[in-house]
Amino acid sequence: GLMCCIRYLVSAHKGFGACVDFNGHLLRAQGMTDEELVQLKEDPRTAPIEDRERELLAFVIESVLDPTSATAEKIAALKELGWTESDIVDASYHGAMLLYVGRLLQIFDG
């Protein structure tokens, strides 16, 4: 689902191998193929989730990787799709927390 895609993409972009492997396994268990995972890394909007979830996914990945990209206009567009401010914050928190966890794994796992 959406949260697994967030974790997979943040991990892939930041080089957190263990997290990529774990979340890739979860996405495969949900029916994604290796080819679809490669495609997902290239374009988050190819995720096999609802259209409005794809928009939130793209926002989270973009803003976690570059916080200055999160604009009021983009947040307003997500709200127009039915996302609440709480939904947007929760998804963004989920992505940002992976930066923390992934970095800790890198520090203590070599």
Topology (SSEs and partners):
Elements: H1 2-14, H2 17-29, H3 34-42, H4 51-65, H5 72-80, H6 85-109
Helix pairs in contact: 1-2, 1-4, 1-6, 4-6
Explain the overall architecture:
- The chain has 110 residues and is mainly alpha-helical.
- It has helices spanning 2-14, 17-29, 34-42, 51-65, 72-80, 85-109.
- Tally of strands: 0
Low-confidence segments, given as residue ranges, are none
The proportion of strand residues reads: under 5%
Mean pLDDT: 94
SSE pattern, N- to C-terminal: HHHHHH
What distance lies between the first and last C-alpha atoms, to the nearest angstrom? 30 Å
Supply the helix-strand structural class: mainly alpha
Radius of gyration over C-alpha positions, nearest whole angstrom? 14 Å
The major pleated sheet works out as:
none
What's the number of helices?
Answer: 6
How much helical structure, as a percent, in the residues?
A: over 70%
> What does the overall shape look like?
globular
Considering the chains and any ligands shown, give keywords for the structure.
mainly alpha; 76% helix; globular
Give the structure's gist in a few sentences:
By secondary structure, the chain is mainly alpha-helical.
